[in-house]
Amino acid sequence: MSALLTVSDLTVTYAPPRRSGSIGTGAALAGVDLDIRPGEIIGIVGETGSGKTTLARATVGLVKPAAGRIDFDGTDLGALRGKALRQFRRSGQVQLAFQDPLRSLDTDLSVGELVAEPLDVVGDLTRAERRERVDEALGLVGLDADSFRDRYPRQLSGGQRQRVSLARSIVTRPRLLFCDEPVSALDVSNRNLVLRLLDRLRTELGLAVVIIAHDLSSLAGVADRVAVFYRGRLVEHGPISDVLEKPVHPYTALLASSAPSVEHDDRLSPLELRVPVTEARTPAEGACVFAARCRFAHDACAEQPPLVPVAGTDRFAACHAADSWRRSLNPETDPQKEALS
Ligand code: SF4
Q1: Could you report the per-residue pLDDT of 191-234, keeping only the tens digit for each?
Q2: What is the rounded CA–CA span in Å between residue 28 and residue 50?
Q3: Residue 17 has pLDDT above 60, yes or no
Q4: Which of 153, 242, 305, 340 is the one with CA 20 to 30 A from 264?
Q5: Rounded distance, CA 94 to CA 169, Å?
Q6: pLDDT digits (tens, 9 = 90+) for 29-87
Q7: Are 296 and 215 found together in one domain?
Q8: Do 158 and 218 fall into the same domain?
Q9: Roughly how many angstroms between the first and final C-alpha of the chain, as a whole number?
Q10: Which atom of ligand 1 lies at the shortest distance from residue 320's CA?
């Protein structure tokens, strides 16, 4: 199936602050390649500042890339100007659901008004058509329109607010939805409910969903693939079950080792993967982004490795030691078999 969204060599740079003595932020994303297919759920995972939210903001046009290209359904979004750009925005085909529904929802507006708001951009809809779209969106997220249309955010539970936020995001009938930390503020039962809902939306609407998360375990059981970011670089991506069970990049292995609900036989301990505190390092400029924290760093790591296919798998990783670092943990093991199975 051909990609709905293709991101090629995308680089986003935030200008350093002007105040003297403050620290510049540098590249928020550096040379990222990724594609997303229709009806797919892909997880984007990484620490705060890893660039995962910047990827979403660049795709919806909230930040301008310094280099690279973003194609949506064959259209180069960076080349759109004037009327073509306005038409694309009005189509509402790409939407972003914000992280904190309580903060992102205007508490003075009713649920019906909140869900209808994104339709202002689409325009040219009659009052009856707007009402129909709002009711449809509320129904899709499992909220009865007649019961919820006139309520206010303060009258909703955390899970209901998250569903109203999702209804806002799908009311324009998008084809691609970015959800920024959709479950991080929810308890376990609401978390499962929202994740099941996203799964249903991709099945019923053919919606491609990108879930931005800071831990791998929240993506298990819902995402098809996962892309792992570290300091603006895509360091590994592939099918979620493979990545969780046998990570290829040492940073992904560290994330998987700390994921509370991910159980499998080959799980490594964080202690096996962390650099001892006595070995503080400052890698040279241009070194692998993970070199300061990587237990397996060696001379070749003075240069950032490219993201390349991992032989024998359908995964990609950016690590000079992708096929050998596990051997140093267990020298008895066949490295090829161990790293790539
Ligand atoms: S390239 Fe080197 S420093 Fe970077 S993750 Fe791989 S082994 Fe570690």
Answers
A1: 888 888 899 889 988 999 999 998 888 888 899 999 999 999 99
A2: 7
A3: no
A4: 305
A5: 9
A6: 999 999 999 999 999 999 988 999 999 999 888 888 999 999 999 999 989 888 998 88
A7: no
A8: yes
A9: 26
A10: 1
Average pLDDT on 331-335 reads 53
pLDDT reported for residue 274: 79
- The residues near 173 (Cβ < 8 Å, ≥ 6 apart) are 92, 133, 205
Give me the number of domains the chain comprises: 2
- Same domain for 184 and 58? yes
- Which residue, 196, 227, 258, sits at the end of a domain? 227
Q: Are 156 and 164 in contact (CB under 8 A)?
A: yes
Q: Ligand 1 pocket: which of 230, 281, 319 to mutate (most atoms <8 Å of CB)?
A: 319
Burial class (CB in 10 A: 0-12, 13-18, 19+), 66: middle
Mutate which of 229, 248, 290, 327 for ligand 1 pocket (most atoms within 8 A of beta carbon): 290
Pairing of strands 233-239, 316-317: antiparallel
Closest ligand 1 atom to 291 CA: 3
Q: Average pLDDT in the 88-115 region? A: 83
**Does the beta carbon of 52 sit less than 6 angstroms from any atom of ligand 1?**
no
Å from CA of 162 to ligand 1 middle: 38
Full DSSP string of 306-337: PPEEPTTSS-EE--TTTTTHHHHH-TTS-HHH
Phi then psi for 317, rounded to 5 degrees?
A: -150, 155
